[in-house]
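Forum: Protein Structure Q&A
Topic: Joint prediction for protein chains with partners

I've read a bunch of threads here and the consensus seems to be that you should model interacting components together rather than docking separate models afterwards. I'd like to see that in practice. Below is the full input, 253 residues plus whatever partners are listed. Could one of the regulars post the assembled result?
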Amino acid sequence: MVHIKRLQEDGADILAIVGEIDASSSIELDLAIAKSVGEGFTKILVDCHALEYISSAGLGVFMSYIEEFRDKNITMVMYGMKEKVTNTFQILGLADLLHIRDTKQDAKKLLNELSA
Amino acid sequence: MNYLHKIGCSLENLKGIRDFVRKALKAHVASEVTLNEIILALDEMCSNLMIHAHHCNPDHFLELTIDVSETGELIFEIIDDGVMFDINQFHEQAIDNLIHEKRKGGLGIRLVKSIMDDVQYLTRNGQFVCRMSKQLN
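Posted by a regular:
Agreed with the consensus. Here's the joint model:
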């Protein structure tokens, strides 16, 4: 069960993930990112403070947008992950392919640097 | 210590699997990161079986057992009446290819193989058994 809240701040779309993402709920993440992209946002922050669990289905959603983000000059930075969630991204090396920061402040800084 | 959980093949039941594994192992696995890895691997194996071998039919059932030995070895078995789904037979595409093709799948089996020490398949009493092991440090 996952709930994704959206809010906008300084031109960025912030997706705050609350709960667990598995094979039954990853569609919610996919729809939220697709909506953000569809509305034309080029700066996306993903707040993972309340993300308790992510399986390969959720990792796959993030992975599937890497090319599209490159093509459309969209920057996405994730932040606030619990150690166990960060580890899930690290097992297969996906943490190196995505932008992940500890704090919202660092995430916004990177977002602005990469978008400049 | 032995633990048993019977699951209908609906993806809605994955949360129940995770809760079962967490409850069974919380006294045996000190590290939250390691415990989450084990939960992840079992979630991945069960969801793969539900999707690919049982087409998410909730009237089909899997049994998940956990055996914790005195030496700290964890043995997991998923017992299945359906079609054998052998992850060792799967060809794994390079992650770069998955990204290029914008694929959402193809990561679960890698996670299982990375997390578990061993994944074997056997038949017992006419049922397929996926047996995984992990030695705790």
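The helical segments of chain A are 26-38, 56-64, 66-71, 83-91, 104-115.
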